[in-house]
Design a protein that fits this description.
It is a single chain. The protein has 334 residues and is an alpha/beta fold. It contains 6 helices and 17 strands. The longest helix is centred in the N-terminal third of the chain and has 16 residues, at 49-64. The radius of gyration is 18 Å and the shape is globular. The N and C termini lie far apart (46 Å). 51% of the residues are buried.
C-alpha cells in the first residue's frame, strides 16, 4: 500500500471586511486545532467481511502510526461492492444503531489501542428488517451506524432502504453527548465531519444542509466505477467551494469483473482546489492535515453560508429539523 504524505496548506485569500452575520450557532463553531485525516484507497474481497475487516484494520493502523486521527474507507468496504452478495455479508445493528460482530474485532482493536476514529462502509441489517448502505463509526466506544446512504444508485434501490435524517453521532473530545446512533455529523477532536456515500454527492442540497448543520468536512465514501471518476472530481470541487468546507472522495480499487473500480481518491480545500490525490490505481493511503485557519480565511472571503436568504424550508430556517444536525437533499427544498 502506497503511503502519500500530507498536503501543503491552502494559501490565504485576501479577506474582505467583516460584515453583519446571520450565521446560525452551528456555523459559528470552528475547530481549534488541525485534524490529520487519512483516506484509504482499498481493495475488498466480495462477501468476506472478516478479511475486509483485517484489511481495514491494517490501513487504519498504518494511518494511526502516522498520527491520523480520522480514517475513512470506501463504500461497502466490509462486504465489497458486489451487489448480488451484499445481503449475505451484512452486519446486524440493534435498535440504537450499535453493532456487535466478532468479525470487526481487528478494526475495533486498532481504534481502541491507537485512539483513532474509523469510518468504514458496510451493509447493515436493522431490527425492523431494513437493509441500508451505511458507514460505520468505529472508535473506543465500539461500533455504531454513523450514516445510512440517502440517495441510492439505480440498481441499489432493489436492495437497500434509503437513509433517514437524525441527530449528531456521539464523538470524543467535546463532541455531542451520547445518544441514538444513526445521525449525521461525527465529532472528532472538535471537528464536525459529515459522512456521505457516493451518489449523495450528486445532490448539492445534501452537502449544503450538512454545512449549515455545522460540518467542516464532507467525506464521501464511494464506489465509482472505472471511467466515472471525473464526475466525482467535478462534484466534490463544487461541494467544497459552494459550502467552504473540505471534501474527500474515497474510492476503492478492484471489484467484480463487470464493474471494476480504479481509485481516483482525492481531497479538496474549502476554496474548491484539489490539495491531494492518489496518483495511481493501486491500494494507497492518503494523508491530509485539515486546518481550521483555512476555514476562517476562506469563509471571510466567500460568504455564501452567511448570506443565504433566510427563507424557511420544511426543515426550518437553516434546513435543520428541531435544531438537529440531520441532513438530506430535501432539507432545504420547499
Amino acid at each position: 500500500m502506497t503511503d502519500l504524505p500530507s498536503s501543503p496548506p491552502v494559501p490565504s485569500p485576501v479577506p474582505l471586511p467583516a460584515g453583519p452575520s446571520r450565521l446560525p450557532v452551528e456555523l459559528s463553531r470552528l475547530p481549534v486545532e488541525p485534524l490529520r485525516l487519512a483516506v484509504v484507497q482499498a481493495r475488498a474481497v466480495p462477501g468476506q467481511v472478516a478479511e475486509n475487516s483485517r484489511r481495514a484494520a491494517a490501513g487504519a493502523l498504518r494511518a494511526a502510526r502516522r498520527d491520523a486521527r480520522l480514517v475513512v474507507l470506501p463504500e461497502l468496504h466490509l462486504c465489497g461492492y458486489d451487489l448480488p452478495g451484499v445481503t449475505a455479508a451484512a452486519v446486524a445493528a440493534d435498535e440504537s444503531g450499535w453493532v456487535v460482530d466478532d468479525r470487526l474485532a481487528p478494526v475495533v482493536e486498532v481504534a481502541v489501542d491507537r485512539d483513532v476514529t474509523v469510518l468504514v462502509g458496510a451493509a447493515v441489517r436493522h431490527p425492523d428488517g431494513r437493509l441500508t448502505n451505511s458507514l460505520l463509526v468505529v472508535d473506543a466506544t465500539g461500533v455504531r451506524v454513523g450514516y445510512d446512504k440517502q440517495h441510492l444508485w439505480h440498481d441499489e434501490r432493489a436492495l437497500f432502504t434509503p437513509g433517514r435524517t437524525g441527530g449528531p453521532v456521539p464523538g470524543r473530545a467535546g463532541g455531542p453527548a451520547p445518544g441514538r446512533a444513526g445521525g449525521a455529523l461525527v465529532a472528532v477532536d472538535g471537528w464536525q465531519v459529515a459522512p456521505a456515500i457516493c451518489y449523495d454527492m450528486s445532490f448539492p442540497e445534501h452537502a449544503r444542509a450538512a454545512a449549515l448543520a455545522g460540518a467542516h468536512a464532507y467525506l464521501c465514501a464511494s464506489a465509482f466505477a472505472a471511467g466515472a471518476e471525473h464526475r466525482a472530481a467535478i462534484y466534490l470541487a463544487a461541494r467544497a467551494l459552494e459550502n467552504t468546507c473540505y471534501t474527500a472522495f474515497v474510492n476503492p480499487v478492484g471489484g467484480p469483473p463487470d464493474r471494476p473500480c480504479r481509485g481516483g481518491t482525492a481531497l479538496w480545500a474549502p476554496d474548491g482546489r484539489r490539495v491531494a490525490a492518489v496518483p495511481g490505481t493501486g491500494a494507497a493511503l492518503l494523508r491530509c492535515d485539515l486546518d481550521p485557519a483555512d476555514l476562517v480565511r476562506v469563509r471571510a472571503f466567500l460568504r455564501m453560508l452567511a448570506e443565504l436568504p433566510p427563507e424557511p424550508g420544511p426543515g426550518g430556517r437553516w434546513g435543520m429539523r428541531d435544531g438537529q444536525a440531520g441532513y438530506s437533499a430535501r432539507a432545504l427544498m420547499p
